[in-house]
Specification:
One of its GO terms (molecular function) is NAD binding. This is 2-hydroxyacid dehydrogenase. Keywords: NAD, Oxidoreductase. It comes from Microvirga alba. Belongs to the D-isomer specific 2-hydroxyacid dehydrogenase family. The chain is of the alpha/beta class and 338 residues long. The chain has 2 domains: 134 residues, 3-Layer(aba) Sandwich (Rossmann fold), CATH 3.40.50; 191 residues, Rossmann fold (3-Layer(aba) Sandwich), CATH 3.40.50.720. It has 13 helices and 12 strands. It has a 7-stranded parallel sheet with strand order 8-7-6-9-10-11-12, sandwiched between helices. Helix 11 links the parallel strand 11 and strand 12. Helix 4 crosses helix 6. The longest helix is centred in the last third of the chain and has 21 residues. The radius of gyration is 21 Å and the shape is globular. The structure holds nicotinamide-adenine-dinucleotide (NAD). The site of nicotinamide-adenine-dinucleotide has 31 residues, from helix 4 and helix 6. Nicotinamide-adenine-dinucleotide (NAD) binds next to helix 4 and helix 6.
C-alpha cells in the first residue's frame, strides 16, 4: 500500500523500514503532524499512519476520505485523537497497536517514582559540582507504602507486579478487575478510597469522556496530604490548573508527568532555542518537586520494534482482506468498552 506516515522522526523511520522489509509497502515519511493544514500530504496515498498528537478529527477524516484514504493506522495504543464516529461515517477503517511492551511504560513509571522519591536527578547535578550535601534529598522507603493504580489493564498490571516486588500494598480502581492483579494481592476499591489511602497514585487508564480531568478539584479534596501523583497515561486525565493549585497547597507532595494535556505544541520537538509560550507548562517547571518527561515512556527498542511490526501487520492485513488485525471502531467499543 502507499502510506503517508505522519509525525515521524529518524528513529520511527528506522524501525518502520526494518519491519517493512520484504513487505514492499511504499512508506512516505513526513515530519509534520497530521492536521487540516497538512492533510494534503496524503494525496495519492491509500492509508495514513499517525501517532498520539496527530489530529484525526471529523474535518480531517472527511478530507482524507475524499482523497481515497481507506485506513488510518495508529502507531499507538490510545486512540483518543481519532473521531471514530466520523471514521465510520466516512467508511475509513481505524487500526491501532493495542499492546507493545507494557513493560516500557511500566518501567518508566517506576523511573519517575524512584527519581522523585530519591531525587537522583538533583543528586547527579550536586555531585558533579562537588556538592555532597544530603540536605533536601530525603526520601522514603517504598516498602510498605500504599500505591493506588487507576487502571489495571496491560500497563497497570506490570506496574502492580513491579510494586509488589518493592513490598508495596497495591490498591486499584478499574471498572473491570484484572484476575492477574487480584492474584498478586491487589485490592480493588472506589476512587475515593484509592485517593484517601494512597501515598502514591499512578494513572494507567485511557483518556475517555469518563476519565477527562479525573484528577481535578474534587479529587484533590479526597487525597492523602503530600501524595506523589504520576501520570503516564494521557495528559487530559489530569486537570493541570487544579494540580498546580494542589502543588502550591502541599496536597500534592510531588508530581511526575510523561504526558501533558497541551503537549501537542511542545513534545517530540527540540525547542531549546525558543521560549515556552505555554504559561501553565512553564509554571509546572518552576516546582522542584515536579519531574516531566516528554512522552517518552514508550521509548524502548522493544516497544518501537513492536509498534512497527504491528503497524505493518495492520496495513498488510488491510491490503489483503480489507480488514486490519487490530481494528478499533464505535461498534467494537460498544461491545467491549475497554
Ligand atoms: P489497557 O486498555 O490494557 O488498560 C486500560 C485499563 O483502564 C483497562 O483495564 C480499563 O478497564 C481501565 N479503565 C477504563 N476506564 C477507566 C476509569 N474510568 N477508571 C479506571 N480505570 C479505567 O491499556 P494499557 O495498554 O494498559 O494503556 C493504558 C493507557 O496508557 C493507554 O490508554 C494510553 O493512553 C497510555 N499509554 C501511554 C504511553 C506513553 O508513552 N506514555 C504508552 C502507551 C500507552
Amino acid at each position: 500500500m502507499r502510506v503517508a506516515v505522519f509525525s515521524t522522526k529518524p528513529y520511527d523511520r528506522r524501525f518502520l523500514d526494518a519491519a517493512n522489509t520484504g513487505l514492499g509497502h511504499v512508506l512516505s515519511y513526513y515530519d509534520a503532524r497530521l492536521s487540516p493544514a497538512t492533510e494534503g500530504l496524503a494525496a495519492g496515498a491509500q492509508a495514513v499512519c499517525v501517532f498520539v498528537n496527530d489530529e484525526v478529527d471529523a474535518d480531517v477524516l472527511a478530507r482524507l476520505s475524499s482523497k481515497g484514504i481507506k485506513l488510518v493506522a495508529l502507531r499507538s495504543a490510545g486512540f483518543n485523537n481519532v473521531d471514530l464516529e466520523a471514521a465510520r461515517r466516512e467508511g475509513v477503517t481505524v487500526a491501532r497497536v493495542p499492546a507493545y511492551s507494557p513493560h516500557a511504560v511500566a518501567e518508566h513509571t517506576l523511573a519517575l517514582i524512584l527519581t522523585l522519591n530519591r531525587k537522583t536527578h538533583r543528586a547527579y547535578n550536586r555531585v558533579r559540582e562537588g556538592n555532597f550535601s544530603l540536605e533536601g534529598l530525603l526520601g522514603f522507603d517504598l516498602n510498605g507504602k500504599t500505591v493506588g493504580l487507576v487502571g489495571t489493564g496491560k500497563i497497570g498490571e506490570v506496574v502492580a507486579k513491579i510494586l509488589t516486588g518493592f513490598g508495596c500494598k497495591v490498591l486499584a480502581h478499574d471498572p473491570r478487575s484484572n484476575p492477574n492483579c487480584e492474584a498478586l494481592g491487589v485490592r480493588y476499591g472506589s476512587m475515593e478510597e484509592l485517593l484517601s489511602s494512597s501515598h502514591i497514585v499512578s494513572l494507567h487508564c485511557p483518556l475517555t469522556p469518563a476519565t477527562h480531568h479525573l484528577i481535578g478539584s474534587d479529587a484533590l479534596k479526597q487525597m492523602k496530604r503530600g501524595i506523589m501523583l504520576i501520570n503516564t497515561s494521557r495528559g487530559a486525565v489530569i486537570d493541570t490548573q487544579a494540580v498546580i493549585r494542589g502543588l502550591k497547597e502541599g496536597i500534592i507532595g510531588s508530581l511526575g508527568l510523561d504526558v501533558y494535556e497541551e503537549e501537542a505544541d511542545l513534545f517530540f520537538e527540540d525547542l531549546s532555542d525558543r521560549f515556552i509560550s505555554d504559561d501553565v507548562f512553564a509554571r509546572l517547571l518552576t516546582f522542584p518537586n515536579v519531574l516531566i518527561t516528554g512522552h517518552q515512556a514508550f521509548f524502548t527498542k522493544e516497544a518501537l520494534t513492536g509498534i512497527a511490526e504491528t503497524t505493518l501487520a495492520n496495513i498488510t492485513a488491510f491490503e489483503r482482506s480489507g480488514r486490519a488485525v487490530h481494528e478499533v471502531s464505535v461498534e467494537k467499543l460498544a461491545r467491549d468498552p475497554r
